[in-house]
Amino acid sequence: MSKKMILAIASLSVVGLMLSACGSATQSATETVAPAGSATNTGPATAVAQTATNTPLALGSVKINGAGATFPLPVYSAWTYAYKYVDPSVVINYQGIGSGGGKKAIIDGTVDFAGSDSLVTDAEYASGKDLQMYPMVAGAVAPVYNIKWAKDFPTGTPVPVLVLDRQTLVDIYNAKVTKWNDPELVTTNPGLKDYLPAATITAVHRSDGSGTTEIFTKSLTSFSADWTAGGATAVEWPVDKAGNGIGGKGNQGVAAAVINTPNSIGYVELAYAISNTMSYASMVNKAGNTVVANSSSLTSAMGDFANGFTDKLTATIVDAPGAGSWPIAGYTYLVLHTQSMTDCVKAEKILEFIRWALTDPAAGQQASNLGYSVLPAAVRDSVLAKLGAVTCKGNLVLK
Amino acid sequence: MINKSRTPLSVLGKFRKRMGKSLHHGDRVWQVLTISMGICVLLLILSIGWTLWQGSVDARLKFGLSFLLPTLDASWNPVLDKFQAWPFIYGTLITSAMAILLALPISLGIGIFLAELCPGWLRLPLGWMLELLAAIPSVVFGLWGIFVFLPAVVEPVGSVLGHTLGSLPILGSLFAGSIPVSGASRLAASMILTIMIVPTISAVTRDVFLAIPHSQREAAFALGATEWETISQVLVPYGLSGILGAVILGLGRALGETMAVTMVIGNSIEGTLSLLRPGYTMSSVIANEFAEAVSPLHSQSLIEIGLLLFVITLLLNLLARFLVWRVARRAPQQEVRG
Known about the structure:
By secondary structure, chain A is of the alpha/beta class. Chain A has 15 helices and 14 strands.
């Protein structure tokens, strides 16, 4: 009996030890994700004024952690890498865990900034208190297609680009237009009349929740009242119910599905379509003009909505009315706490980084090279003005 | 000199006597250590279950049993916050069941060949190859599936099945409709899973056969049994519980496999039972949607699917254990002992 007692007590204590070991392990893990600023918090607000002028901080001593959307991950990676040469004291680490995860992390305070393609909801503003969104760059989404033409094109002539009406795109994803030679498609593509096959259209969409899907479905919502599935990071696709839909994981998954499925259509980020040399369709925009997805049509779309920003600096730029505007586009945002940051050195470094990313020509060039569009001057100025209003412990952070 | 050196020894001896035999060879320490490790496993399972149960509380309260309702027009709508898990449950169960059905004869054949019939020089390299196949990461299977296996094998096989079995009265609903040109379908997932679990099942089956005492074979041969009769009437019944164990291992992998299935199944919530149409599985939907599940109800529903998967896996394992136990009780070697 007593032996058993000893045994039980001993085993319990060992389990306890192991559990506490587990506990400390998770704690150190969160510390690496979000250091509480023990090393960097050199002093009160006076330090902010000092660092700008004298006493340079040690190399890599300010560690800034961000997490969120994967849509801007390529450009954020390029920027944080380049920024090491602009300010060697700063190390920025951005993890692409998804917009939802990023917003949760900034509300919980486990990261210093979050990236998000989707807007912060009222409930999230309530629990996050002083959250503010800042648009950083815009990206376009392009419909990509793979059509097995009914007959060969005459040699020497380039294959014409498919043109889609806004209503037609909605009808395809609603499974109302199910054949490539549907009259709706022939109307917008008179030159392809004899080449469009009588084959069923397979509509490919993202299977994972994604900002790309949100931009795409919000566009469909705006294009036509027929689209009732709504606009969100994941929706219930009518084309799935009809049996003509396929979900692919990530941009790669959608691209692979389109490439492997003759007579299919899908949607990917423009940068992705270009780098994979996929055929992407032109669109007839709200003004009735046929536009190609590129940085100028994207900039035009941003310009159309330059005055449409809310107090939280959010704006949708889908279905832009301008003559040369690409209709399927969206901003990607950084999310910050505007008043409750406690480490003022770090706060200053974050804001300096954002200011650099928005204003430095080299940073803008990097974004364009990766297929994003930088903000038009008017939008950028209002973002910078909002950045200037950020406070730490009651003092303005940017001087 | 001798006296002096004895003193410390005798002290050690007394200490040993006082502590009894418990410290002898560290037996007791070892026992305590291993028991606490065992308890740790139990605690882990309980805490996983508890976390999943707690994390899905709102979804469970809101949807109740309608979440599980087996209906063909189940909806999974993050925009309207309306979630039903049936398409995913069905997808997981049908693909795993098909995979086991396809993998069992193949693996049994491989296992028997390797253990009983294979010439000595081939046994080792073939065994290595089998283990290599088991070590390939699932994402590689998925990629290979998308670009090679689906268009080359699944799509043709699927069309043939659709044309032949599709018109049968009851079985036909499993082969209704036409397979997508890309091949992405429940059938594709089943076949990829088959390839993935064959190495596991056949390796274990081979070991089971190798572990059967030679006396069994000799006795059978002595009675005039042919090789086929020895294998089918003596060795297979003898090793049945071990083979069932191998199937459990394979089933476990099939139920939980995420990446390869996600890449080939089509990820579409379609209202049919057909193997030839795109589908969705429980693990796929969690992997796909969890990162961007913004509304609380959405993430809670995904956690509830995780809970379901946890429960289904547990139940199936229990059932399999029960089967193994039943079989083991009837097995010849046990009868001799009993």
